Amino acid sequence: EPLLVESGGGLVKPGGSLRLSCAASGFTFSLYAMNWVRQAPGKGPEWVSSIAFNSAYTYYADSVKGRFTISRDNAENLLYLQMNSLRVEDTAVYYCARDDSMLNWGQGTLVTVSS
Amino acid sequence: EIVLTQSPATLSVTPGERATLSCRASHTVSSSLAWYQQKPGQAPRLLIFGASSRASAIPARFSGSGSGTDFTLTISSLQTEDFAVYYCQQYNNWPFTFGPGTKVEIK
Fold it and tell me: How many CB atoms within 10 Å of residue B92?
């Protein structure tokens, strides 16, 4: 059964950086596009970024463009989100999700940006 | 950016009744529309993809329909475990976008 496990969240000051990881298992990771989706407290989900199965393309929400970088390691079945210049409004639970239709989601990792 | 509008914002339903949720897109998304269920403290769960295909292990009481700009999620006979928030999402164009959600509550 497909399983996604996020890690790397935590408390960071505005302007700081974090690197999120998503470990995938139970499916052929290298065949699927992957996404990061976030959900601020009390709000709905917000798509953050997508990466092709072979890293041929990456897309970003305008709210994170130039600050966040998505990447993947198909040999290790890992998805990453490098987050720089973090802002208070980036506070959210960050989920990784498989494929454009978000077939599976991880349990999420909480990122809190606060001074 | 494609804007998704969901209605109603809240739906009060008696267990066993039928629930009909609507999602409208500002521009066509073809059939690239998914529905998710989210309960408090949990990640969203995919119910429907491709506008009308049920995801793995989703009960048959959940069905999706529509194409283009108008979509519907129908729950034929609400069970107590179905009370949750439901979101639609389009993946026809980047940026992918989610609707604001419909909360289905017990009447």
Answer: 16
User: Two tokens at A4?
Assistant: 């996604």
Rounded alpha-carbon distances, angstroms, from residue A109 to A50, A95, B62: 17, 7, 29
B64 touches chain A (CB under 8 A): no
- In the predicted model, residues of chain B with pLDDT beneath 70 are none
Smallest CA–CA distance, residue B18 to chain A, in Å, is 24
Give the pLDDT confidence of A23-80 residue by residue, as tens digits: 999 999 999 999 999 999 999 999 999 999 999 999 999 999 999 999 999 999 999 9
3-state secondary structure A75-112: CCCEEEEEECCCCHHHCEEEEEEECCCCCCECCCEEEE
Nearest-Cα distance to chain A for B45, in Å, is 7
